[in-house]
Task: inverse folding
């Protein structure tokens, strides 16, 4: 089990565009395992590889964490193939933007294709939290944070709050 530190904004590495994975091999599965361990250790429901400093197109997610049961899923090289015109608004958080929660508008439903941890091609149609979380994590693969969807004023307020809490933490 390897829990790796999660980068926080405004770390410039979070702005990288992640590169596709050539083959789902042992190294990819080790990355997936580290991401799952890091996500659970941080009490998250999703994580993109770039958040632990690996700019690869890999996402993990577990939306079913109940009664100590875990059901992690991995999405390698995910692509959104269809988005609904209907929009849904969810309050989002991000392990790379701690302590900030804001409403974000995204497509209410999406279809996606990806490779699973065995390298098999999968298709998925989703709505609700799964559609929101997938779009949030896929934004990370393009170097986009959820606060980039906010107004300039709300984004700069969020970044100021983040910097203040970092200063307080550093001061002990
Ligand atoms: O990308 C990330 O950092 C993961 C992020 C996923 C996400 C959450 C909510 C809406 C969209 C995307 C998180 O896991 S934030 C943490 C979180 O969801 C949570 C933490 C503690 C209790 C309950 C939820
Ligand atoms: Zn995030």
Result:
């Amino acid at each position: 089990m390897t829990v790796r530190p999660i980068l926080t904004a405004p770390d410039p590495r979070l702005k990288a565009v992640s590169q596709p994975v050539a083959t789902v091999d042992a190294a990819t599965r080790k990355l997936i395992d580290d991401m799952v361990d890091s996500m659970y250790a941080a009490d998250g429901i999703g994580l993109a590889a770039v958040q632990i400093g690996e700019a690869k197109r890999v996402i993990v997610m577990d939306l079913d964490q109940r009664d100590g049961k875990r059901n992690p899923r991995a999405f390698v090289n995910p692509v959104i193939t269809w988005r609904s015109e209907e929009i849904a608004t969810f309050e989002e958080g991000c392990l790379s933007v701690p302590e900030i929660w804001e409403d974000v508008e995204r497509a209410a439903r999406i279809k996606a294709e990806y490779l699973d941890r065995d390298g098999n091609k999968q298709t998925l149609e989703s709505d609700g939290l799964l559609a929101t979380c997938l779009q949030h994590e896929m934004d990370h693969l393009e170097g986009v944070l959820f606060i980039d969807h906010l107004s300039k004023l709300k984004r700069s307020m969020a970044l100021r709050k983040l910097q203040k809490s970092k200063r307080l933490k550093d001061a002990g």
Residues 43-47, 90, 92-96, 132-133, 136-137 surround K1U (ligand 1) (CB under 6 Å). Residues 6 and 52 are 5 Å apart (CA to CA). The radius of gyration is 16 Å. The longest strand covers residues 73-83.
